Structures are given as C-alpha cells and as structure tokens.
Amino acid sequence: MARDPRRVLKLDFDTVIPGHGAVTTKAGLLAHRNKVAAIRDRVSGMLHDGESKDKISQVLLQQFDWKPINMRGVDGMMAELAAR
User: Fold this and answer.
1) How many CA atoms lie within 13 A of 47 on its CB side?
2) Of 30, 38, 47, 74, whose CA is between 20 and 30 Å from 81?
3) What's the burial of 42, exposed, middle or buried (CB within 10 Å: 0-12/13-18/19+)?
C-alpha cells in the first residue's frame, strides 16, 4: 500500500527537524513538498518530450535552483520517472 505524504501535514506541529537541511516550519515543509512535486512534473514532461539529460539538468538548475552533488541524482530521478 502506498503511503500518502500529505498525512504528515494533517498533524499538529510547528517545527520540522529534517534529516538533511535546516530546521523549518510546517509552511516550509509544505513549500518544499510543492517544489519537489513541481520538479517531478517538469522532469516527467521533459522526459515525455524526449529532452536530453543535459537540458533537464539545465532546467533543474535555472528554474528550480536544484544543484545535485553529482549527476547520479539526475540519472536516478530520470530512471524512476521514465519507469512510470
């Protein structure tokens, strides 16, 4: 059974202490979730349109300020989304 990531937003809390990154708020968590969803949707569309890894990486950097430590992050995301 798939887990619903929106369930955590129904909980009553103010502070989020993530495993990586800065301490944030519930609003910050929602903003991050929305950014990840936007990245997923944009990359999915680009894969569907046959865009190259270089073009996808460029959009991730310019549009989302996403800087993976190495390109394996882009490779993994592309592989996962292509399998859907």
Assistant:
1) 17
2) 30
3) middle
